[in-house]
Amino acid sequence: MDTVMLGDIEGRRWGADPSEAKVAVLAVHGRSQQTSYMADVLDRLPADLPAVTALLPQAEGDSWYPQRFVAPLEENQPALDAALAAMVLGLDALQADGFERDRVVLFGFSQGSCLLSTLLLSEPAAGGIGGAALFAGGYVGPEGMAPPTGGARLDGIPVRMALTDTDPWAPMFRTEETVRALADRGAEATVDVRPGDAHDVSDGQVGLLADLIRSAAAR
Fold first, then answer.
1. Total domain count for the chain?
2. 174-185: per-residue pLDDT in tens?
3. What is the Cα–Cα distance from 181 to 21, expressed in whole angstroms?
4. What is the pLDDT of residues 155-168, one digit of tens each?
5. What is the CATH number of the domain that holds 140?
């Protein structure tokens, strides 16, 4: 994979050459994973999609922050803020490739989903994106914590969250709180729940991501 540096974080490229792609995806892996996991998921996208390129940041030590995402916030600092800053640099790198925000789709799984959920709610630079697929996660912070503030309005932006109903790593309450918070900012946010405790990206979730890519390509 070609690479681009996002501060101290290495971003690896997947898919079409940026000069030929219609849509760019910022794909963020989960805890104890590498970019290869996200690349394998992207490889499952339908072959008839418009040309897609992706930037896959790789966390140092394979994790974006040290504790569970519902731990007290200070236990995940300063790593959390550093990871959020790297995501903004990822968006900037895609813009330098020629992708305005409305042609960028965010895709996060597990810890990556938590990171991108927090980014959308707290970071103005994430405003205006083409969509977000956030699987098995929610915004970072302990139970009872209000959603992050400071982000841009998300009017009309499609956000698709998904998880299993007994996922041991992604409590349902936080996903539901995140959907409500995103909707309060104007996003068209939905959650897809399937039975079981699998912590993975299902074929149905790949389909949700594909739909977001098609929508962004049509803009």
1. 1
2. 999 999 999 999
3. 32
4. 999 999 999 999 99
5. 3.40.50.1820
